[in-house]
């Protein structure tokens, strides 16, 4: 019974983390496109990734680089890149 509650809490924390990183990845891709320079775009992505990581750790009360990277960090980078490329090609 206790294992099931832990599993559900872990699953809920992962979903919250993925949602936060998904939304912030889209915002980062949009902002990167507005800047117009590749280095500034990558820079804004890195800054927003770090900020999003701290916000996520505060909200879900999870610590650790490995947990954060697998539960949102990689998704953030992929979504940022997809959004940036999509918006760049639409202009």
Short description:
The chain has three helices and no strands. It is an all-alpha fold and 91 residues long.
SSE topology sketch:
Elements: H1 2-35, H2 38-60, H3 65-90
Helix pairs in contact: 1-2, 1-3, 2-3
Description of the molecule:
The protein has one domain. The mean pLDDT is 88. It has three helices and no strands. Helix 1 (2-35) packs antiparallel against helix 2 (38-60), helix 1 (2-35) runs parallel beside helix 3 and helix 2 (38-60) packs across helix 3 (65-90). The chain has 91 residues and is mainly alpha-helical.
Number of strands: 0
Strand content: under 5%
Helix segment count?
3
* Sequence stretches where pLDDT stays below 50 over 5 or more residues: none
* Count of spatially separate domains: 1
Task: Please estimate the helix content.
Answer: over 70%
Jot down its keywords.
about 90 residues; mainly alpha
């Amino acid at each position: 019974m206790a294992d099931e509650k832990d599993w559900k809490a872990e699953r809920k924390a992962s979903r919250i983390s993925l949602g936060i990183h998904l939304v912030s990845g889209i915002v980062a891709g949009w902002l990167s496109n507005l800047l117009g320079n590749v280095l500034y775009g990558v820079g804004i992505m890195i800054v927003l990734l770090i900020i999003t990581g701290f916000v996520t750790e505060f909200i879900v009360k999870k610590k650790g680089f490995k947990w954060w990277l697998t539960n949102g960090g990689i998704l953030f980078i992929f979504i940022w890149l997809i959004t940036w490329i999509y918006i760049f090609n639409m202009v």
